[in-house]
Amino acid sequence: MGTKCKIFVIPLFLSFFLLPLVFSASSDGLVRIGLKKRALDQNNRLAARLESQEGEPLRASIRKYHLRGNLGDSEDTDIVALKNYMDAQYFGEIAIGTPPQKFTVIFDTGSSNLWVPSAKCYFSVACYFHSKYKSSRSSTYKKNGKPAEIRYGTGAISGFFSQDHVKVGDLVVKNQEFIEASREPSITFLVAKFDGILGLGFKEISVGGAVPVWYNMVDQGLVKEPVFSFWINRNTEEEEGGQIVFGGVDPNHYKGDHTYVPVTQKGYWQFDMGDVLIDGKSTGFCTGGCAAIADSGTSLLAGPTTIITEINHAIGASGVVSQQCKTVVAEYGQQILDLLSAETDPETVCSQVGLCTFDGTRGVSGGIESVVDEKNGGKSSGVLQDAMCTACEMAVVWIRNQLKRNETQDYILNYVNELCERLPSPMGESAVDCDQLSSLPPVSFTIGGKAFKLTPEQYVLKVVAGDVAQCISGFTALDVPPPRGPLWILGDVFMGRYHTVFDYGNERIGFAEAA
User: Fold this and answer.
1) Cα-Cα end-to-end distance for the chain
2) CATH of 253-304+437-514, one of 3.40.630.30, 2.60.120.260, 3.30.379.10, 2.40.70.10
3) What pLDDT shows up at residue 508?
4) What is d(CA 421, CA 319) in angstroms, rounded to the nearest whole number?
5) Is 295 a catalytic residue?
6) Domain coordinates in residue numbering, the chain
7) Which residue among the candidates 195, 295, 479, 492 is catalytic per the annotation?
8) Could you tell me the pLDDT band of residue 499, with boundaries at 50, 70 and 90?
9) 400-410 burial, b for 16+ CB within 10 Å, e for fewer?
């Protein structure tokens, strides 16, 4: 990202679908990569905090998700920074070197580097459980040696750049720069069912300035058009998991026309998104527009805590109680409501009640001190002040939206208090009652002036173990600070419903109903 920010990843059930790769070539000139499914493994659990830093790919928080993926076929993608997926990931097979050495990789539109484990990875246990690149066995290997590192909260992938031919499907990208990982954090990668990552993002977020695989595919004339597209098969009864098409679009996997929006900032596939609707009603959060990215490397759909809390409340998902939030409602709720009713600028409300500084930054204002002292044994806490300010800002959004609906004051304060009891847990999944799916509201995202709706069956992830079924909310909280945020990450929960076209040539992205 352009600015430094921390993104917290929930400890997930990481069930990966390790899928044998099926290549197909056809007379239409498109290259396809198909993946097959493998049974879900719920015994692996991963706790990771991913930190996104200047020039590094975004790491998103993700929860459980049944992903089935066939990745587009023979075009090369960028080496990608690792993403954590719950319950599913998209795997495909590539090869590096001459003769080819095979690796299973994740195809990720949220990062732009290619990395695989190196034969020189001696001291990381995780490397011993994955295929490793051996430069000495490749006649097309060229030494680079420039150090490389991609950071995660649990550690870092580190190593060095090398250069070799990379084969994706039937396409061979010559002299591709990639990272040989000589050190991997074992907690993260020991249980991973993939060897490395192939990124499909823009070069602006490529670590070390390496030219992404996809760029070289285009520059070397290997694809018909500078376009690739994703189809994710959500039908759990079908063997085929989905498909990535390099060089164009397969008309068999979408209905109607695509709605295209321009890429607003290169790096991630970022675009402007409009209002978020719950049961057709505005949440008021993105009426003025929000930044969003389409990210095949994120299993769930991630957004700011404020609105994810409202969504999870609406679908009855479990959460955690925030005492700071409840304190704000009890101590300042009426005052906030009165200020908003008097049409006070929402940006200044929390400073006026003394919970944030005038410029909207966290907690030095006098009004908070008595609350902080009382709740913290007489000792002021900058962390607690920060939490109180954050809670106030969320309350302002919630109260303002309810005022627009002409709800009564008692209803509004009670509703906001309920939201304080439903904040998404930063360390777990938000469970949903499987028996209530038919009564849950649809959630829609406005893109290009069109509402893209997700039904409960599409945004709730059902995980079955024997005779027991567990349902998990497909929405997870992720707070990216300004100026880059708020940022929404439309991961595989969304892309599974909508066929997605990444039009590199015209710098735009398109969505259509998947078929």
Assistant:
1) 33
2) 2.40.70.10
3) 98
4) 7
5) yes
6) 5-251, 253-304+437-514, 323-420
7) 295
8) very high
9) bbbbeeeeeee
